[in-house]
Amino acid sequence: MWWKNEIFGGKNVTKIENWPWQTLLLIQLNSGRVIVCGGTIISPRHILTAAHCAENIDIANSFVILGTVDLDSDDYVIRTIKSVKVHPEDPSENSLVTNDIAVIEMLKKISFNDKMQPICLPLSDSMLIKGEGTVLGWGNYNEGKNLSESISTVLKETSVPFIDHKLCNNAWKNLIDPDFELADSQICAGGNARGTARVIHSNFAHSTLELRPKKYIIQQILTGFIGR
């Protein structure tokens, strides 16, 4: 059993216009360590991300990269960070990693265009337990039977089915602890085989749900997934 920053079965995204709310966060921690996380545009100035990415951030040396799928490209927008708000219930203090959510405020607003758009937010607390969503990110990826040594420089996407809450909870009990209880606010998604749609813990990925007509809402921020 292991924890990974991986996306299995993902394919390269060719145009950021397909997912214009996706951003990359280049974060330097107060310790000097640099990490890379995913973020989602929710307003002209705000980015939604995971709390475990935004805690202990050195704001002066951290940046938001927008409007690109290719990190090697010069065609992107970069913004400095003004402030960070992390959920008041520290996710690092509980084994479930609940409330793993933060909002980053950029120093300067962005202008919406085909490459930068906000995602829709849920209108209620209702949880989806059927259907499937799309996971996006720049995480490590599978190269044949091996895992890449570095993160992908190109944004990747993959589809994952949502898993029944009770079924997922029982699976976690078997893998981790018989007393384990999945929080009601958490969603399970994934598959059973490499190269299909199994996604394991990724700092770089968010999941979206497609609605009809062509509209997407953010459904979850990936926090902790286990594979074996």
Question: Could you characterize what this model shows?
Answer:
The chain is mainly beta. The protein folds into 2 domains: about 5-15 and about 120-220, Thrombin, subunit H; about 20-105, Beta Barrel (Thrombin, subunit H). Helices cover about 5% and strands about 35% of the residues. The chain has helices at about 50-55, 165-175, and strands at about 5, 10, 20-30, 35-40, 45-50, 65, 75-85, 100-105, 130-135, 140-145, 145, 155-165, 190, 200, 205-210, 215-220. The strands form 3 sheets. Strands 2, 9, 12, 13, 15 and 16 form a 6-stranded antiparallel beta sheet that branches. Strands 3-4-5-8-7-6 form a 6-stranded antiparallel barrel.
Instruction: State the total count of DSSP E strands.
Output: 16
**Oligomeric status:** single chain
Spans of at least 5 consecutive residues whose pLDDT stays below 50 are: 1-6, 193-205
What is the CA-atom radius of gyration, in angstroms? 17 Å
**Count of discrete domains:** 2
So what's the overall shape? globular
CATH topology of the largest domain: Thrombin, subunit H
* Mean of residue pLDDT values: 76
- CATH evolutionary superfamily of the largest domain: Trypsin-like serine proteases
Structural class: mainly beta
Helix fraction, binned, reads: under 10%
- What is the annotated CATH architecture of the largest domain? Beta Barrel
Secondary-structure element order, N to C: EEEEEHEEEEEEEHEEEE
- Tally of alpha and pi helices: 2
GO molecular function, one term: serine-type endopeptidase activity
Domain Peptidase S1: 7-228
Protein name: Peptidase S1 domain-containing protein
Keywords: Disulfide bond
